[in-house]
What we know:
Blueprint: E1 2-3, H1 9-18, H2 24-35, H3 49-58, E2 59-60, E3 68-71, E4 77-85, E5 88-98, E6 103-106, E7 110-112, E8 127-130, H4 133-141, E9 151-154, H5 164-175, E10 187-191, H6 195-204, E11 208-212, H7 218-224, H8 233-240, E12 251-257, H9 265-275, E13 282-288, H10 302-314, E14 318-322
Parallel strand pairs: 1-2, 6-9, 9-10, 10-11, 11-12, 12-13, 13-14
Antiparallel strand pairs: 3-4, 4-5, 5-6, 7-8
Helix pairs in contact: 1-2, 4-5
Binding site for S-adenosyl-L-methionine: 158-159, 190, 212-214, 290
Keywords: 4Fe-4S, Cytoplasm, Disulfide bond, Iron, Iron-sulfur, Metal-binding, Methyltransferase, rRNA processing, S-adenosyl-L-methionine, Transferase, tRNA processing
Subcellular location: Cytoplasm
Amino acid sequence: MKTLIGHTLKELEALVKSHNQPKFRAKQIAEWLYVHKVTEIEEMSNLPISFRQQLSENYTIGRHVPITTQRSKDGTEKYLFSVDTKKGLREIETVYIPESDRATLCISSQIGCKMNCSFCHTGKMGFLFNLSAAEIINQFLSCPHIEKLTNIVFMGMGEPLDNYDEVSKTLEILTAPWGLAWSPKRITVSTIGPRDGLLKLLQEQQCQVAISIHSPYPEERAALMPVEKAFPIEEVIATLQKFDFSGQRRLSFEYIVFDGLNDDLRHAEALIRILKPLLPYCRVNLIKYHSIPGVDLRSPSPVRVQSFEDYLNSKGVRCTTRRSRGEDIFAACGMLATTKGKKPE
């Protein structure tokens, strides 16, 4: 059956029209889905009984609670959601990160990933499936702590801009007045920078943007991130320069720190040079590398990371180190992966 969540208002208007219902029914359905967060069509009490029956014959709400939950010693929770694909059931992972002043949900946009970054557990799965807007928004709607959430990051499994159409619909649902009415300032999309998707994101959306960089040197970055060959970081930065980040929209660069690879003064200085055109408006987030099986890369010492951060700040680069969360349950950055599903042929 088709799902109702994941529909935009325009799509709901087309749906009610196909059932010979007045246009205002679309807003009523949207309110039930995204404001009241119902789980059954029968709960939509201001819809005619006959229309609810018609909907029930063709649709479900589409809400699915996590099939498992893992809790870290630091309070982080990782949820496993089941997704029914044409190739059978698959799973995705979503992470809830509570802090003293905020609560962030890290959501997935794909099962697996095409980008094959050498340090990323998700990338080792290969690409399996693009999630629909319904499957993406369900991670938010079915989060056990939904009422506590203050921020959303598209930093889970997959490259969001490789699935831009469905991510775009999800962003519309999250931010529209008829939807969840979240401020775009509270939503961040993290990307390696695919050209077409990045342009669409910058032109069509108002959410915060985070660019994965990890090395300022093209050859070294290509070894870590093969996508550098198709979308060089210098071209990504040139694209970003065409847009205004002087207001409330924030631009950040994610820099995973690897021991003995990209954590020295030479890299810090090169990073400053490459980011110079954007320095008044961007910031750098340092992330300690989290070791994953089968990858010969090492985590840096806290002293090394702090030294790197201090140097960047001393040169006028706004830089912070992201505190590692959920590493003991494989919920930290780059560690998400489900291994039950096999790549479709």
